Amino acid sequence: MRRKVIAGNWKMNMLPNETLSFIEALAPHVKNSEVEVILCVPYTDLFYALLAAQETNIKIGAQNMHWEDSGAYTGEVSAKMLKSIGVEYVILGHSERRQYFAETDETVNKKVKKALEEGLKPIVCVGETLEQREAEKTDEVIGKQIEIGLGGLKETDFATLIIAYEPIWAIGTGKTATSEQANETIRAIRKKIVEMYGNEVASNVIIQYGGSVKSANAKELFTTSDIDGGLVGGASLKVEEFEKIINFS
Ligand code: PEP
Question: For ligand 1, is residue 210 a contact (CB within 6 Å)?
């Protein structure tokens, strides 16, 4: 049985004091939740988030990392560094990083391998543009992202790795994929994983949906056959809204 996982992606928002009060306010509302709750925060908030989340069931993640352990990579942070302070998750290949910071399927693959090697749990994002969806290229585009981005892994890696299906046209736009569209594409992702790693891996891997998730659509999305929770951007910045999404059922 797959579990539901709901992760907030704060992007470049929130200061340390806001992080502390957010987690303090959220924790009591989610302490009995059966959903796994993750907050992926900016680097500068990580230490504070880890402190505030210590006695709670909220897990903390970063939003990116470099694939090398150390070296002349100004401005970068390695998996080892994240792991050393107790970070558990890391978002990799978010469409904003692909779009603005030249992230490719190849660099995503290097990062995924390094994260797993260091014991970090990657949340790997894939998704199509509106043009690609309208040209009926969604499965092909995502198939390639999965083939390269998740190539050369071990079957056991999929026990910790999470995939987030995030149609680019639905991120931060207020346009959500319908639950049928999201579920159907996630089924196509499972089919691709069957080809690469077999049935058991494909039916057990956690695949989230992301793209304008809010409390009003969370239940409809997360109660479909193949969607195992969500990666939530804007709506994860407000305690009340994020708490309602987590407690969707
Ligand atoms: C995201 O950034 O991963 C995301 C899904 O954003 P939003 O929920 O704001 O669309």
Answer: yes
218 CB less than 6 Å from ligand 1? no
Question: What total of structural domains would you count in the chain?
Answer: 1
The CATH number of residue 88's host domain is: 3.20.20.70
Please state the atom number of ligand 1 nearest to the C-alpha of residue 212. Answer: 10
CA of 203 relative to ligand 1 center, distance in Å? 25
Q: How far is CA 219 from CA 25, 28, 130, 213, 222, in A?
A: 22, 21, 24, 10, 5
5 HSE (CA, 13 A, CB side): 28
pTM score, whole prediction: 0.97
> Residue 241's pLDDT is what?
98
Q: Residue 104: pLDDT above 90?
A: yes
The predicted structure's pLDDT at residue 177: 87
DSSP strands (E only) in 11-130: 36-40, 58-62, 89-92, 121-126
Query: Using an 8 Å Cβ cutoff, are 87 and 60 in contact?
Result: yes
Residue numbers of the domain that contains 196: 5-246
Return the exposure string of 85-101: e unless at least 16 CB atoms fall within 10 Å of the residue's CB, then b.
eebbbbbbbbbbbbeee
